[in-house]
Amino acid sequence: MGVMKKFEQRLEGLVNGTFAKVFKSEVQPVEIAGALQRECDNNATIWNRDRTVVPNDFIVELSAPDYERLSPYSGQLGDELAGMVRDYAKQQRYTFMGPIKVNLEKADDLDTGLYRVRSRTLASSSSQAAPASGRPAQDPQGAPGGGYGYPPAAAPAAPPTGAPPMPSAPPPGARPGGYGQPTGQRPPAAPTSGGRARFWIEINGTRHQISRPTLVLGRSTDADVRIDDPGVSRRHCEIRTGAPSTIQDLGSTNGIVVDGQHTTRATLRDGSRIVVGSTTVIYRQAEG
């Protein structure tokens, strides 16, 4: 059984209890769970062939109305979300540098139904090699740990006996954040360097970096970028980066429109406008 399905079933047992009010909120716990999975995937840092480190400390920012609805249950919901992250990390063979924590915060600049996720790797005094997730104690830009308004992170402890040695800083190319969620705003992804081509998309002012050869857009929580639009299919279309980059419809109900033309497949250029459902996606590319 999939990690997300297990999470949903655990919450279903609480619907008639303390979580009855939570599910009336426009931001659903399963949406947050999907965002945390993507946050792990998009911030995974390969330390060596046997260890991939992902974030272990997460903050979910909610609008004032959603925060008021969810905050009375934040402890229990945080524990469930942390358990989901732990299960997902085990499935993906990810490693944490400390205990997993998920906290809710109120953000006055967000409207009802919008949210954003921030994450970091926070090392514990005795880092464990069991599957989990977190960002290295030094952030990708070389500043001491603690970006995004967090306090400075503690220095990582020596690895357990027999574990591969951990480098003192993450390898080049590590970056904060990941794909932004389709709802809510987040800081633009930091550009990569080294002269390589960079690819990203913009949805409602939110930038989603494309760090893999393919990117699936859709309404499902399994999509790489989730678009909460009733006119968007669960797996609506796929962008393939390259020279040139292309977009392919994945058998969606409503199809795709690229630069004003209905199509099932098209070549993308910098600034191409993609319409899925009632949502406009801007494709971007640039040399690093």
Automatic annotation (TrEMBL):
Segments forming domain FHA: 215-263
Keywords: Phosphoprotein
Disordered: region residues: 122-195
Pfam families: FHA, FhaA_N
Keyword Signal included in the entry's annotation: no
Ranges of compositional bias, category Low complexity: 123-142
Compositional bias (Pro residues): 153-174
PROSITE patterns assigned: FHA_DOMAIN (PS50006)
Alphabetized SMART domains for the sequence: FHA
The keyword NADP is assigned to this record: no
Transmembrane segments: none
CDD domains: FHA
Listed name of the protein: Phosphopeptide-binding protein
Provenance organism: Streptomyces yokosukanensis
